[in-house]
Amino acid sequence: MNRFKMLPKFLLLTCAFALLGSGYAQDAVHAVAGAVTKIDKTGKTIAVKTADGAEQTFKYTERTGIRDRRETAQAAKIGAVDTYFAGKEGTHVVVRYMGKGADKTATLVEDFGKVALKTGKGTVTHVDRATHSVVVKGDDGAEATYNLGSQAVVETDQGVVRGTHFIVKEGDKVVVHYTEAEGSKVIHLFKKL
Known about the structure:
This protein has 193 residues and is mostly beta strands. It folds into 2 domains: 27-113, CATH 2.40.50.320; 118-192, CATH 2.40.50.320. The chain has 2 helices and 13 strands.
């Protein structure tokens, strides 16, 4: 085999080992959905109340991204979390973060507006891999079909993964955070309970 054809694989492995050695790969990115309750400009923190009523606080930096999911372009802006969310208490967000406990730092905050992000909870009864959809039966017995959007993330024990890379099984207990568009329920954050 030509040694130049092996070069890209070698470089990829070298980069992977370098990241592992640096500790960067050890910090997984996680995600949580909720509503913004407070922005502390002095302490550089954003507080979010989750659907279960818990409040979580995240540090932010000049490198924290902001994405307005109501815009069609959906390009992430970097920095200025405090000015972007000033006066927007109650805005529904999905926060991607690194760290644990009181030492969580937001890497991306996705803004869904005041009433756009909804929550569903139940047991997966059907999975259609071809259409990237799942049927979830709620506690009330009603079933709903949800589509994993192209930007959907799934919270796992190891951190978030793209929705298209996650394997959900019938019988899994889940909570989904979604929006409705053109009669379809589009998942943005999917969590296995």
